[in-house]
Amino acid sequence: MNEPSKHSGSAERTGAIDISDFIYAATGERVRRLTMPNGSHWFPAVDVCKSLGYTTPRKALLDHVPEDHRDNLETVTGSHGLSVPAGRSWRRDLQLIDLQGLILLVNACTKPACAPFKQWVAEVIETVQREGSYSLDKAEVQPAGPGAPLAYAMPEQVAEAIVRLEAHNLQLDEELANGQRESIALQRETLAMQREVLAAQQATLAVQQAMVRAMERIADRFDTLVLERRAPRGRLATPPTTESVLAAWRQRLSVTEDVWAVAVVIAPVLVEKGELREPLESIATRTGLSVRRVNECLRLLRKHACIRSRGGAENGAPVYVLHQI
Question: For the purposes of burial, counting CB atoms within 10 Å of the CB of 296, is it exposed (0-12), middle (13-18) or buried (19 or more)?
């Protein structure tokens, strides 16, 4: 967040070097900045320390920045009659450092990216010691507007550092984009594999269902063979009738009124069609019982070997057949 100064200042060289480029050349990052009405610049210490590789901002400030070059956000803004900037990242107790404090942190940093900036600072000090002053070169293209401040060329060392840092950041952006593309490709491959696994599971389920149907047919055939073997020699087993089925059921269990009502409805169907595929709701309607009670009656008939389950129909209705002994 940059808050531009409300006063341009009378000095010709105020802002001779763009402060954003200056800080970028020093730290290699576009750190947040607050510019006060008097032209002073303040920076969040945590931003600067992070860009320079300091792991403990508090220790870095205590070791390298004197107290008169650091303060908290509320004090700095309050001294100029300003309010704390909006946003969760701008806390009242946020530690700030001024431009001189930032340069002190840069000079204490060991990152190779800070070397060009340090060399330029050393050149400035040497030039001042030798010649008594250090001046910036004026840019070839001067501002055309009347009263506009003069433009000055960025020092060569700092300009070269900015170019190298920008190229490095572009390379990092390209690497990040490549990483994102690889991640998307990997996600697509994973999705394709998941689809293949799902298809395999569906095929396995179809095989299992076919096996269940085959086993049911085998069980039916086995029951038929048992009946034929137990029938008297020289004659076939007598086909069951509704009356014989109901009579046999009466002998196997104590038939209550509810059970008998269900038995009277399903016995003719089992005898005529060989199986019952009627939904429970339909049986409940014909008997006047609840679906739950119909289900209990059918469970009781299965328990006493009157009928047996044979899976389910396509519409979800249970399938029952006579339990022949």
Answer: middle
